[in-house]
Amino acid sequence: MNTPSPKKKKNFTFSQGYKEGIQRRKHARIPVEIKSTFTYMDAYNKYTDTCLITSLSTGGVGFETNGVLLKGDVITIIFPMEGFIIKEDAMITRTHGKEIGCKFIDPKKDNVKKIQEFIYKKIFQ
Fold first, then answer.
1. How far apart are CA 113 and CA 116, in angstroms?
2. How far apart are CA 7 and CA 86, in angstroms?
3. Number of H helices and number of E strands within the chain?
4. pLDDT digit string, tens, across residues 13-35
5. CA–CA gap between residue 59 and residue 108 (Å, rounded)
6. How many structural domains compose the chain?
7. What is the pLDDT of residues 95-107, one digit of tens each?
8. Where residue 74 sits, what CATH number does that domain have?
């Protein structure tokens, strides 16, 4: 008699980041692997670089890149999502080596809805 194996839980994060007992995360975050590009400007030039988005939420993304970014830099990140192209301005909120975290700046409602639907599908299907 075969016993069915338990279903493997999907890895995702609902509101982590408690500091001093206070929850600061406002958006569910899921792990992903999405090849992406981003653009940024210095005082003289506009640059484009590649990255791999490793976490996604309606509030921002985490990604890995060889590009040099600093906390407070503003970028435009562009990535595909289920037949759509998401393009949002974002501010770098944390850096740790090649790992970068950023928060969307005034995200478009349509893009937030597409990201919410994508996260919902990944969590509950």
1. 5
2. 32
3. 1, 6
4. 444 444 554 445 566 789 999 99
5. 11
6. 1
7. 999 999 999 999 9
8. 2.40.10.220
Domain that holds residue 37: 30-124
| Single-letter residue type at 81 | M
What global pTM score does this model have?
0.78
Distance from C-alpha of 125 to C-alpha of 119, rounded to nearest angstrom: 10
Question: Alpha-carbon distance 8 to 22, whole Å?
Answer: 30
Close Cβ partners of 80 (under 8 Å, ≥ 6 residues apart): 34, 36, 86
Measured at the alpha carbon of residue 34, what is the angle toward residues 41 and 113, in degrees to the nearest 5?
Answer: 85
Integer Cα distance of 3 and 92 in angstroms: 48
Asked if residue 46 lies in contact with residue 39, where contact means CB atoms within 8 angstroms, the answer is yes
